[in-house]
Request: fold
Amino acid sequence: MEFQFRPIKVEDVKQIDSWNYDGFVEKVEMAPYFESLNQTGKLQGPGGCEGYAAFHEDAVVGLFEYNVNGRIMEVGLALRPDWIGKGLGATYVKQGIAFGLHHYDEAINEVRLEVDERNKAAIRVYEKIGFIRVAQKDQDIEMRMFV
Reply:
């Protein structure tokens, strides 16, 4: 399965904002995109990250967010709710990271992310592809992978 990553557009933000998840996460937080658009005219995600919509067969199926600081690339991500639990997680995360490493063409040697400790399925996916747990604050686990 191949995912295509494209710079996020307003219509993608609106679509992702409508996704509803069962469990402890109800929605992907898209408010920063709307706020930055209103304030600066640009779509920027949390912390000024750059957002990319993930497509499969011209349908938005995911979100990948990147924030590069020196040799570290921080990522945030989401997969459309109806795509979760179908065994696509590792492929999606690997392709999103590969896209970021290629796109930013930096001397990146570390990828970081945070995940809620209750999101056991995501943690398994991240560990499967090489992330390790390095810290925990409240319910957020910080994970890192060296590339």
